[in-house]
Known about the structure:
The protein has helices spanning 107-113, 144-150, 165-175, 182-195, 199-202; strands at 14-18, 24-27, 32-33, 39-40, 43-44, 67-78, 81-92, 96-100, 124-132, 135-136. The radius of gyration is 20 Å and the shape is elongated. Helices cover 20% and strands 26% of the residues. Strand 4 and strand 5 form a beta hairpin. The strands form 3 sheets. A 5-stranded antiparallel beta sheet has the order 3-7-6-9-10, with helices on one face. A 3-stranded antiparallel beta sheet has the order 2-1-8, with no helix packed on it. By secondary structure, the chain is an alpha+beta fold. The protein has 2 domains: 14-149, no CATH class; 165-202. Keywords: Hydrolase, Phosphate transport, Transport. GO terms for molecular function: ATP binding; ATP hydrolysis activity; phosphate transmembrane transporter activity. Its EC number is 3.6.3.27. One of its GO terms (biological process) is phosphate ion transmembrane transport. Residues 85-208 form the ABC transporter domain.
Amino acid sequence: MITAEQRSMNKMPYFASYGEDDRKTALTASAAVTGTAGNKGNTLSKSKGPVEKTTEETVGQPFVDAPRMTCRDVNVWYGDKQAIMDVNIDIGKNQVLAMIGPSGCGKSTFLRCLNRMNDTIPVCRVTGDIILDKLNIYDKNIDVVPLRAQVGMVFQKPNPFPKSIYDNIAYGPKIHGLVNNRTELDEVVEYSLTKAGLWDEVKDRLDQRILQH
């Protein structure tokens, strides 16, 4: 279980990592962020000021001997406003990493860098290197579709596709080739909705679009 440690962060995200042996290593990445990294409708919220560098000493060890993912000198801009600066951190195999910080400090902006979801924001620009399994995910030859299948993201708020209830549940198993036919897919959908406690509520309207008003 990940527990949050409360500490003063000076608008800077706080990182806590957990290895396989359940030892806790708390660390702060070498990053400074603005107070408004978030955006809505591809527009940047008005910045409260320039990027602030922190003098707070890193706690723990942000680098590991055999990382699964490495981030070096990662910077993100929304237009001419810099959202995060010089993030350098390793993520080890089977490691759970928590980023803890105030709203708008750049946590989600950084997470979106890890599977190039920031590519979908026209005003966003990312520099630096993010290496996953020895490949730079920002290489021009990288196909973002399998990358995003490998590096998923669960959003704070539900983000269903504008499709039916059935298609939303079936989407993941279908694109990952986890089922061989419609019968198996039906079983996965029923099982998933049952485990979520929703089957009895929606079983008679699986073809209804989720975003239907």
